[in-house]
């Protein structure tokens, strides 16, 4: 019912040539399944976005931004609007990635404005949530995720929230080589779906895709994807290696 979705977050990596060749290799590797059996997106750095969109023009792979600003235009030096991402050819945008929450110090309120602006600008936001290791150890995972989701989705109508994908990314698993076990991921994903059902209704909860992120690799993708509430993967480091990322996508169908 929910089509699987795998997105590759390149973060602040690649250069012009490697961004083009990586995009082309991934597109060739998954040409028989992308779009039809699985949604695939690449999230390159802003400066390489147009190269990547060009390289993917004959594929069924979508492109997304790693961040967006909430204002539509104006004197916001260094920022990029939803309209600009849309105009460049983007479909998706990450909002509230843990590196932006914890390094750049983005708040739930700012992230909520970004999610709303993304939808208004015609993009599909991927709202990232996740607990720190100390929060998990203190049994605060549910409380943290609940707060991030309630605040991240605040003010969104039922119609608008259907544009949102949620990515559960435990911070302790991002870029560390430690991944949540499939059972740990399922526990939180199930809780998130229940939360969305309570905030909206069962229909919205059934439709909403919830991705897992945190050291996803070719050898753990299938077991994570085997969980009933894991609808896809948000992949960081492993999305920079074409063959590894292709294997992850194939294992997620
Ligand atoms: C991410 O950046 O969203 C991520 C999940 O990174 P990694 O796969 O490298 O842990």
Overall description:
The protein is an alpha/beta fold. It contains twelve helices and eight strands. It has helices at residues 16-29, 49-55, 82-88, 98-102, 108-120, 133-137, 141-152, 158-161, 182-199, 202-207, 218-225, 242-251, and strands at residues 5-9, 39-43, 62-65, 92-95, 124-129, 165-168, 210-213, 232-235. The chain has an eight-stranded parallel beta barrel with strand order 1-2-3-4-5-6-7-8, surrounded by six helices. Helix 5 crosses helix 7 (141-152), helix 7 (141-152) packs across helix 9 (182-199) and helix 11 (218-225) runs parallel beside helix 12 (242-251). The radius of gyration is 17 Å and the shape is globular. Phosphoenolpyruvate binds next to strand 8. Residues 9, 169, 174-175, 213-216, 234-238 line the site of phosphoenolpyruvate.
Write the layout of secondary structure elements.
Elements: E1 5-9, H1 16-29, E2 39-43, H2 49-55, E3 62-65, H3 82-88, E4 92-95, H4 98-102, H5 108-120, E5 124-129, H6 133-137, H7 141-152, H8 158-161, E6 165-168, H9 182-199, H10 202-207, E7 210-213, H11 218-225, E8 232-235, H12 242-251
Parallel strand pairs: 1-2, 1-8, 2-3, 3-4, 4-5, 5-6, 6-7, 7-8
The structure holds phosphoenolpyruvate.
Phosphoenolpyruvate (PEP) is lined by residues 9, 169, 174-175, 213-216, 234-238.
């Amino acid at each position: 019912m929910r089509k699987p979705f795998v997105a590759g977050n390149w973060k602040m990596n690649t250069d012009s040539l490697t961004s083009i060749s990586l995009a082309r290799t991934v597109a060739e590797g998954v040409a028989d399944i992308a779009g039809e059996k699985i949604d695939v997106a690449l999230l390159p750095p802003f400066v390489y976005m147009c190269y990547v969109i060009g390289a993917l023009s004959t594929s069924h792979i979508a492109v997304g931004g790693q961040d967006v600003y909430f204002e539509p235009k104006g004197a916001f030096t260094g920022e990029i609007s939803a309209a600009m991402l849309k105009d460049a050819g983007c479909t998706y945008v990450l909002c509230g990635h843990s590196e932006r929450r914890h390094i750049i110090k983005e708040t739930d309120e700012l992230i909520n404005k970004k999610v709303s602006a993304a939808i208004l600008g015609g993009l599909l936001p991927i709202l990232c949530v996740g607990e720190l290791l100390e929060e998990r150890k203190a049994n605060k995972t549910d409380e943290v995720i609940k707060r991030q989701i309630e605040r991240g989705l605040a003010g969104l109508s039922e119609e608008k929230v259907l544009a949102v994908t949620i990515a559960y990314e435990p911070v302790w698993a991002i870029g560390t080589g430690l991944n949540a076990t499939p059972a740990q991921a399922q526990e939180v994903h199930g809780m998130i779906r229940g939360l969305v059902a309570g905030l909206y209704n069962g229909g919205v909860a059934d439709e909403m895709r919830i991705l897992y992120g945190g050291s996803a690799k070719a050898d753990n993708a299938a077991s994570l994807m085997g969980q009933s509430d894991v609808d896809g993967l948000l992949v960081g480091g492993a999305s920079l290696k074409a063959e590894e990322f292709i294997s992850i996508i194939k294992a997620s169908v």
